[in-house]
Design brief:
CATH class of the largest domain: Alpha Beta
Number of strands: 11
Distance between the termini: 19 Å
Helix content: 25-40%
Strand content: 15-25%
Oligomer: single chain
Number of helices: 8
Low-confidence stretches: 147-158, 180-190, 197-204
Order of helices and strands: HEHEHEEEEHHHEEHEEHE
CATH architecture of the largest domain: 2-Layer Sandwich
């Protein structure tokens, strides 16, 4: 876990990366929004979650693809666009912007990996669920675990329910499955959903309602205004539950174990 001094330096560096990212988006009329823990930080802390050490943004897939091509040319020289094309050893299925003058080691990795390990910003691409290339079996399993087991039936025979849910794939179409399980949280038609997919493992994907994102709103994050989903309360409750509750001290841990500034 990073000490407070290192964490402050990491936050400063990530804010710089975020601002360079936003400059490119604004210049090229690309839409983005603060996502995941960064959005939670904006709402609950008006900045970083104090113990957080990464930064997340979301984009619609079309804007995401445009950003990738533009960023190859327009990112400043001290930043690196990490995708499979530019860094064949990288593990992530989505783009990161990395700082060339640092190295941050997450608890799940080792120092000195072959891929770029600079302080980073994650860019999560979202696609319309009908356009996403999703295996129906995994889609059902994911939705059943995420929506039913996690939010409704977490304490009632989770293993049995997981297996039972997975077997239902043989009886329902993708649209029926999606309406049944996403419908527990949202009532709109399936066309109204985005999924963070793009070959990302299913336990890391999430489903959100398009109208809860667009039109985008703005919130203050570390003293500056950034784009956020317009219904960020519903968005955050779907992902985190009672998100305004501060977790106990033993849960306030950063993702990284070490940072080096070069």
């Amino acid at each position: 876990m990073l000490n407070d001094n290192d964490l402050r330096k990491v936050h400063d560096k990530m804010l710089y990366i975020l601002d360079e990212f936003v400059k490119i988006c604004d210049k090229n009329n690309l839409k983005y929004w603060l996502d995941a823990g960064t959005l939670l930080g904006a709402v609950r802390h008006s900045g970083f979650i104090p113990w957080d050490d990464d930064i997340d943004v979301g984009m619609h897939y079309e804007d995401y693809c445009k950003f990738i091509e533009i960023a190859k040319k327009e990112l400043p020289s001290d930043l690196f666009l990490q995708i499979k094309e530019t860094d064949p050893h990288c593990r992530n299925y989505f783009a990161k912007i990395r700082d060339n003058r640092s190295r941050i080691i997450e608890t799940s990795e080792k120092d000195g990996e072959k891929y770029h390990q600079g302080i980073f910003l994650d860019i999560f691409p979202y696609v319309n669920i009908k356009e996403a290339k999703i295996d129906k079996f995994l889609l059902l399993k994911h939705l059943f675990v995420k929506v039913y087991v996690k939010t409704l039936l977490r304490k009632i025979l989770p293993r049995f329910l997981n297996i039972f849910g997975s077997l239902l794939i043989f009886f329902f179409s993708r649209e029926t499955i999606s309406k049944l399980f996403i419908g527990e949280m949202y009532s709109d038609s399936i066309d109204g959903y985005f999924v963070f997919d793009i070959q990302v493992p299913y336990n890391r994907s999430k489903f959100v309602c398009k109208k809860d994102i667009f039109p985008l709103d703005n919130l203050s994050f570390c003293g500056k205004s950034y784009s956020v989903p317009n219904n960020y309360d519903k968005y955050l409750r779907f992902i985190y539950g009672s998100y305004m509750e501060i977790p106990p001290e033993d849960k306030r841990v950063s993702h990284s174990s070490k940072v080096v500034f070069l």
